[in-house]
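BUG: 3D viewer hangs when loading the predicted structure for this chain

Environment: internal workstation, default settings.
Expected: structure renders.
Actual: progress bar stalls at 90%.

Input used:
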Amino acid sequence: MSHLRGVHLCWGAYGFWLPNDPRGSGSERVWSPALRESGEATKVADRKKSRARQPHDRALRVAAKQALKRPAVKFTGVQARAIGWGFAELATELDLRVWACAVLPEHVHLVVGPSAYSAHELIMRFKSRATGQLKAQGIHPFGHLPEVDGRPPKCWQRAGWKVYLFDEARVRDEIEYVEKNPLKEGKRVQLYPFVTQYTG
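Structure tokens produced before the viewer hung:
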């Protein structure tokens, strides 16, 4: 059996991809009664391929977001930079190889090498470290709202998406996909000092 070469991690900012998104989701249930008015959960069995460009009822998706407790988060360039600093801290601390990173207004992508931590744990740690930077710099998207237990409301979605990579060609494909993500949104290629070149 092939050994694990890396993992593609992705997760959204608060409000980015709802559990009842018409393109499908990874959720089995819509917990918020207000969101449920826009439809039940749209879980799909196969989430290995991106569904972002799949044709759908955009008006329905936008309407559902109006039922959120808080406005959907869209990170500014300054906030994205802080998030990148948080990622850099964690990558250095864990001696984690990061081969690609894209911090976009509504979601982030990372391609990382094997780690002693599970993909789920890595996502949680990256979220936490990025949030810490946003708070430290006074630019947390919900920093102006009342805190609960000494913390502002979460600016990330609860879950994340991951693809385990066992083939070298697939690793390179995922790296290229992440590197091109900013270009698809009309932004510049993103360069981070903690991102290293994949050499196989």
